[in-house]
Amino acid sequence: MSFLVTNPYLSLLQTWRKRKIFVSYHHQNDQWYYNEFSRIFSDSYNVIQDNSLDRIIDSDDSEYVMRRIREEYLT
Questions:
Q1: DSSP string of 19-44?
Q2: Distance CA 10, CA 7 (A)
Q3: What separation in angstroms does the CA of 56 have from each of 64, 67, 68?
Q4: What are the boundaries of each domain within the chain?
Q5: CA triplet 15, 22, 41: central angle to 5 degrees?
């Protein structure tokens, strides 16, 4: 007779999935912190994907800018 030993955390671990997150930062003041964050997680875990805007969205309408970012850069 064999007994199956189950770990209560195993089912939790099996349900974890890699999630995508959005990191926003102020380039002028926080670039160094982003670079370090990116270096550590990209080198160690290969999980960083930089989707920085290629160009500035030329508009003063914040709703328009956010909509363009959602449509073109966030998936």
A1: --------HHHHHHHHHHHHHHHHHH
A2: 5
A3: 13, 14, 11
A4: 21-73
A5: 70
Q: CB of 63 within 8 A of CB of 47?
A: no
10 sits in which H/E element: helix 10-15
pLDDT digits (tens, 9 = 90+) for 40-69: 877 777 677 777 766 788 899 999 988 988
Confidence (pTM) = 0.46
Sequence-distant (6+) residues with CB within 8 A of 22 are 74
CA 49, 55, 60, 64 torsion: positive or negative?
A: negative
Summarised one tens digit per residue, pLDDT across range 16-32 is 666 677 777 888 899 89
Question: How high is the pLDDT of residue 61?
Answer: 92
